[in-house]
Structure to design on (75 residues):
């Protein structure tokens, strides 16, 4: 992982610190998460940030084998 120096407004830093604390993340991982969501939102303007987060969560669950195939006959 590369290190970069980035200048951020104090208001953004404060919001990121609050977000990191709320989500039980360290500052760097909170920043990476928010940037990832933001970049995906720019590429997919039709999706809300909540939808993007849900997709990322579903993808992680799929990769961990936590997803079962849905069978309508089981209803």
């Amino acid at each position: 992982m590369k290190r970069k120096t980035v200048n951020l407004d104090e208001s953004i830093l404060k919001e990121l610190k609050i977000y990191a604390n709320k989500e039980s993340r360290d500052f760097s991982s909170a920043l990476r998460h928010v940037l990832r969501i933001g970049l995906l939102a720019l590429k997919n303007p039709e999706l809300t940030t909540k939808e993007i987060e849900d997709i990322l969560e579903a993808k992680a669950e799929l990769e961990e084998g936590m997803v079962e195939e849905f069978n309508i006959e089981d209803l």
User: Anything to note?
Assistant: The chain is about 60% helix and 0% strand. Residues 41 and 47 are 7 Å apart (CA to CA). The mean pLDDT is 93. The two ends are 47 Å apart (CA to CA).
